[in-house]
């Protein structure tokens, strides 16, 4: 059974464009490794520039396989260079009854 995840990436100073470019290729690269479903990812931006990504792993096992995959580790290093991960509940929009975001 698939596992849908929502992740928030706070860009490092001056790295917002690089982060958006990286998120546009993220799921396609995971797909090449056989780790995600065909679900089209949803990419959003908060009012402070945080990027939100929603996508679906193939399974809980696929998530574990990603932790052993050298290609995925390299991609995660690319993310680490341009952003930090932040909890969803720290986003200002998360406090609204209907959280609104800008599509990327």
Give a description of the structure.
With 104 residues, this protein is an alpha+beta fold. It has a single domain, classed as Alpha-Beta Plaits (2-Layer Sandwich). It has three helices and five strands. The chain has helices spanning 16-32, 60-66, 70-82, and strands spanning 3-11, 42-45, 51-57, 83-86, 102-103. A five-stranded antiparallel beta sheet has the order 4-1-3-2-5. A hairpin with a 5-residue loop joins strand 2 and strand 3. Helix 1 packs antiparallel against helix 3. The longest helix has 17 residues, at 16-32. The N and C termini lie far apart (28 Å).
Please give the structural blueprint.
Elements: E1 3-11, H1 16-32, E2 42-45, E3 51-57, H2 60-66, H3 70-82, E4 83-86, E5 102-103
Antiparallel strand pairs: 1-3, 1-4, 2-3, 2-5
How would you summarize what this structure contains?
Helix 1 (16-32) runs antiparallel to helix 3 (70-82).
């Amino acid at each position: 059974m698939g596992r849908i995840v929502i992740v928030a990436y706070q860009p490092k100073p001056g790295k917002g464009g690089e982060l958006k470019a990286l998120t546009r290729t993220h799921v396609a690269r995971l797909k090449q490794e056989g780790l995600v479903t065909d679900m089209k990812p949803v990419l959003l931006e908060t009012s402070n520039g945080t990027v939100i990504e929603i996508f679906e792993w193939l399974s809980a096992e696929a998530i574990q396989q990603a932790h052993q995959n050298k290609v995925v580790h390299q991609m995660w290093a690319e993310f680490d260079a341009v952003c930090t991960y932040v909890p969803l509940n720290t986003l200002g929009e998360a406090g609204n009854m209907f959280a609104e975001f800008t599509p990327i």
